[in-house]
C-alpha cells in the first residue's frame, strides 16, 4: 500500500489468518482483545473469527483450539462519506496509505450486515461519542 498499490485477497488472507491465530491465542488465555484493522469484506471478517474455515488458505491454529476458545467479534463499522474521509486522510503526515488508494478501499468495502455482530457509527461523531457508543454496546453483550 505504501507504494500506491492496493492489497488483493492473496496479500490480505495470510495477514488475516495471522491475526486470527493471535486473537484465538489471546481469547483462549482469557484476554479481551481490541483489534483495529480494515476488514473491508465479509470474508475478511469471517477469517478473523473462523480462521481457515473463512479462507481458501489455511491458518495455523487447529480445529481443536478453535473449538476451545469461542471468539465473538463485534465489528465497529466507522462509516463516513468519501469526501470526509478523504479530507482527513489528506491531513495525515507520514501515513503508510496514500490518499490515492482511498477510492479502492471504498470500492472493496462490503459494509457489515445481519447476521454479523456489528454496530455502525458515523465518523461525524467526536471520539468521545464513538467510544461511549462502543462501551454501551459492549455492556449489553
From TrEMBL:
It comes from Cercocebus atys. The keyword Nucleotide-binding applies. The keyword Nucleotide-binding applies. This is gluconokinase. SUPFAM superfamilies: P-loop containing nucleoside triphosphate hydrolases (SSF52540). It comes from the Eukaryota. Pathway: Carbohydrate acid metabolism; D-gluconate degradation. It catalyses: D-gluconate + ATP = 6-phospho-D-gluconate + ADP + H(+). GO terms for molecular function: ATP binding; gluconokinase activity. Keywords: ATP-binding, Kinase, Nucleotide-binding, Transferase. Belongs to the gluconokinase GntK/GntV family. One of its GO terms (biological process) is carbohydrate metabolic process. One of its GO terms (cellular component) is cytoplasm. Transmembrane segments: none annotated. CDD domains: GntK. Its EC number is 2.7.1.12. InterPro entries: P-loop_NTPase, Therm_gnt_kin.
Amino acid at each position: 500500500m505504501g507504494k500506491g498499490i492496493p492489497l488483493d485477497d492473496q496479500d490480505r488472507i495470510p495477514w488475516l489468518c495471522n491475526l486470527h491465530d493471535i486473537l484465538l491465542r489471546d481469547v483462549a488465555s482469557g484476554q479481551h482483545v481490541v483489534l483495529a484493522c480494515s476488514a473491508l469484506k465479509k470474508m475478511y471478517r469471517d477469517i478473523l473469527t473462523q480462521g481457515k474455515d473463512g479462507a481458501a488458505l489455511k491458518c495455523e491454529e487447529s480445529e481443536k483450539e478453535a473449538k476451545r476458545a469461542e471468539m465473538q467479534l463485534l465489528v465497529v463499522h466507522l462509516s463516513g462519506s468519501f469526501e470526509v474521509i478523504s479530507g482527513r486522510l489528506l491531513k495525515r503526515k507520514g501515513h503508510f496509505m496514500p490518499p490515492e488508494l482511498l477510492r479502492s478501499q471504498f470500492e472493496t468495502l462490503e459494509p457489515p450486515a445481519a447476521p454479523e455482530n456489528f454496530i455502525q457509527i458515523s465518523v461525524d461523531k467526536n471520539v468521545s461519542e464513538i467510544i461511549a457508543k462502543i462501551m454501551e454496546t459492549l455492556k449489553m453483550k
